[in-house]
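Before the break, one more example. Copy the sequence into your notebook; we will annotate it together after we see the structure.
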Amino acid sequence: MASLGIWLTLEITMAQYNNRIYTAYILKFLQTNAELIHISNLEQKAGIREGTLKRAIARESKSLKPETLRNLLPVLTKSFNFQLPTFETAIETLYGVVGRICGVTVNGLKSRVRDRQVVEARYIAIDIYAKITFKDTPLGDKEYTYIADRFNYDRNTIRHALNTVTNLLETNLPFKTKYNLCLEQFNI
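Here is what the structure looks like once it is written out:
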């Protein structure tokens, strides 16, 4: 499991429970609190097949089935006061990891600065967010708008950012190196 990737969380809806980051976050919580949590009792309370969580923790699974997460989250919340961080925390963490790797401050990433190093780092963050949120879904106007709302840009800026990342990966080796380091941090 990526050392920093587990702390990244995104705004959650029922349709988005099959998100790698939520799985990593929940499994890390279970692993860290193993002495307090009886996994088999938890599985029983959540109506999850016996051994599912133990296998997922042992394999460091990248995702659990949506129904497993849907059943597990309320039990964790009720029994252990477990809560997923807010969207702002997720973006802050994403910016922190990408900024550290790219040599840019979080404030620089949040600003509208147009310095090449800052812009490239910002585009990497947007691309990682899109990969995590929409995994295998082809991106259209609806998805671009969703991402744009989260980053406070318009959808054409998001489209441009994602296209630029694709182009830079093909032509710019230092950019590709930074990009791959960022992906490794989020276990993608």
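Residues 5-80 form one domain. Residues 1-18 have pLDDT under 50 and may be disordered. Try to locate both features in your own notes.
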